[in-house]
Specification:
single chain, mainly alpha, 0% strand, membrane
Length: 141
């Protein structure tokens, strides 16, 4: 359930224009979060990567709870991508500053994903909501 909640929060940060069109008073809150957006992105990128690692390590769940395993993998992938997009400036500064080849590759990946940030954010809200529901429906014994 925590993956779903964090994915929804990250998605809300990733698509502020969508939120502002529905709730104009949310602008103040989003402006307060903006200076920390890079750090939030890095944390969620690693959280999403950890979720993917958890899914791979528990690949046996495919036989007992395939829907939950697929949900965990999909949600973690969306979370890692959104975190990467939001945290890219800091990731570039702290982790890729010494390796030009890695920096170029990261810039290429970001160029491919960045135009889809809005759609990825909406997908994140949907998948996050499903993760919360699925956490109640598919318990792992």
């Amino acid at each position: 359930m925590i993956y779903g909640i964090t994915l929804i929060l990250l998605s809300i940060i990733a698509v502020p224009s969508l939120i502002l069109s529905k709730k104009p008073n949310a602008k103040e809150l989003l402006e307060k979060v903006e200076p920390y957006q890079g750090w939030i992105g890095i944390i969620f990128c690693f959280w999403g990567i950890w979720g993917l690692v958890t899914a791979v390590l528990n690949i046996g769940w495919l036989t007992s709870v395939p829907i939950w395993w697929t949900t965990l993998a999909a949600g973690s992938l969306v979370e890692a991508c959104l975190g990467f997009l939001l945290g890219f400036p800091l990731i570039n500064k702290f982790f890729l500053s010494g390796n030009e080849k890695a920096r170029e590759k990261a810039v290429g990946i970001r160029a491919k994903i960045a135009p889809k940030q809005g759609k990825l954010g909406i997908l994140g809200i949907i998948v996050g909501a499903w993760m919360i529901v699925a956490s109640f429906l598919f318990t792992i014994a």
